[in-house]
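User: I'm new to structure prediction. If I give you an amino acid sequence, what do you actually give back? Let's try with this one:
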Amino acid sequence: MIDYMAKHYDDLIRAALEHLQIVLITLLLSLALAAFFTILCVYSKTASRMIPGLLSMIYSIPSLAMFALLIPLTGLGRTTAILVLVIYNQYLLLQNFLAGLNGIDKSISEAAMGMGVTPMQALVKIKLPLSRKAFIAGIRIAMVATVSIATIAASINAGGLGTILFDGLRTMNPAKIIWGSLLSALLALLIDGLLRFAEKRLDHSSTSCSLP
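Assistant: Good question. You get back a string of structure tokens that encode the predicted 3D arrangement of the chain. For your 212 residues, that looks like this:
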């Protein structure tokens, strides 16, 4: 195992960087789309009933089946992998975003509206800052899931750490299997740890601001 790392560390680093790139691109696109869906659900009762249910149905589809459905449209490779990951993330992000916004005391919003604040101003200046802990929690859950599914995406030539893992399974190479699995798990733990740290920092800053 150590011998494999010494001889093929460049392959491991390249696969890890490819995996991280997929995760970061997915994060940016997922947040933009989830923000759009969240605004729709906040201002439309019809959307708030339909969109979460639809996303829940999509999320229940196995990732390999989703890849298979999209390959005829977008082909093999990273584009299909990122598209599937973004679609899956919508359910996780939207659930947490709406939970954070709906958990705010209505009297706060009503007081702001009574002072002449528009609904959009109330959302941006009041609701979003108060909901940021739930937002970070949703992002953390979505990103850990993204790292996991991105590993499976190597089966459609998307690259990343799954390439090492699947090649190890194909050739019955224990070192590749272990390193592919280990690095994928470490990347998930790293992202989870960083976002948990950000979540704690937000809690600390909120507590400090509330003190007289």
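You can read the tokens as a compact description of the fold. Here is one thing that stands out. The chain has one domain: 2-210.
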